[in-house]
Amino acid sequence: MPERPPRPETAIGDGLTENQWLGGRLTLVQPKRGHRVGTDAALLAAAAGARQGRIVDVGAGVGAVGLALLERSPRASADLVEFDPELARLAERNAERNGLQARARVVRLDALEPRERREAGLVESADCVVTNPPFFEARAVRPSPDEGKARAHVLPHAEAGAGLANWISASLAMLAPGGLFVMIHRPEALRPILTGIGSRLGGLALLPVHPTRAASAHRLLISGVKGSKAPLRLAPGLILHEADGRLTAEADAIHRGERLIDWGV
């Protein structure tokens, strides 16, 4: 099943659209072409729940997930970490458009560079880190001719699995002890995911997301607590679509921002 972008949509010029997302809770300006905010962002925002304190959204794009968490939690603040300068500008614009600029800081940096993280004050400082990393290794796929989509989908590391493991390691370096890490990725990437996590997270939970009841999982939600000693567990799966293509009641409520992910605890 394809990603479901936010609706309704209005073209506003300069190759941009304005979308009402999460049932109108947020207004997002984003590029008309390239990677678009959709189901993965809605799932990640719902998986993180209602967080307090300092949130870091790694690879924030136009800011959808981090801003969704701020909209849900009035006492939270967020650092929206994004390398692409145009997306970072749009994240700033979206924070202002939704009246969240006082609690949102857009940080343009390469999250994989320790020096840049230190200079931005992003060393074991976050109460919660959320991330939707690029899904593919550079040598495993042919990148999209659209530069923005290619950056969003492909990790620029040659060694198989190293890119994702490094991304996770960098994300965890920003997380304070006792903080919550939440990520969405593909089930096929479980091995490099666990490699990147290593022993730094406990209470690790894996939640498979299925496009339909009859289909194998096509997404995997991962959460864990830094420094915890709790065991790994498999959470109840989430079904997105009925056989006729309609969203299930649970998935529809998640897309409208009315329901959080049930981690089964």
Give the averaged pLDDT, no decimals: 90
**Number of separate structural domains:** 1
The CATH superfamily label reads Vaccinia Virus protein VP39
| Beta strand % | 25-35%
Q: How do the helices and strands follow one another from N- to C-terminus? A: EEEHEHEHEHEEHEHEHEEEEH
Q: What would the principal axes of the Cα set say about the shape? A: globular
For the biggest sheet, the summary is: 9 strands, mixed
Architecture per CATH nomenclature, i.e. the level-2 architecture: 3-Layer(aba) Sandwich
- Report the CATH topology name: Rossmann fold
Low-confidence segments: none
Q: What CATH first level would be assigned?
A: Alpha Beta
Helix content: 25-40%
Q: Please state the oligomeric state of the protein chains shown.
A: single chain
Structure characterization notes:
By secondary structure, the protein is α/β, with parallel strands linked by helices. The chain has one domain (37-255): Rossmann fold (3-Layer(aba) Sandwich). Helices cover 27% and strands 29% of the residues. A hairpin with a 4-residue loop joins β2 and β3. The radius of gyration is 17 Å and the shape is globular. The mean pLDDT is 90.
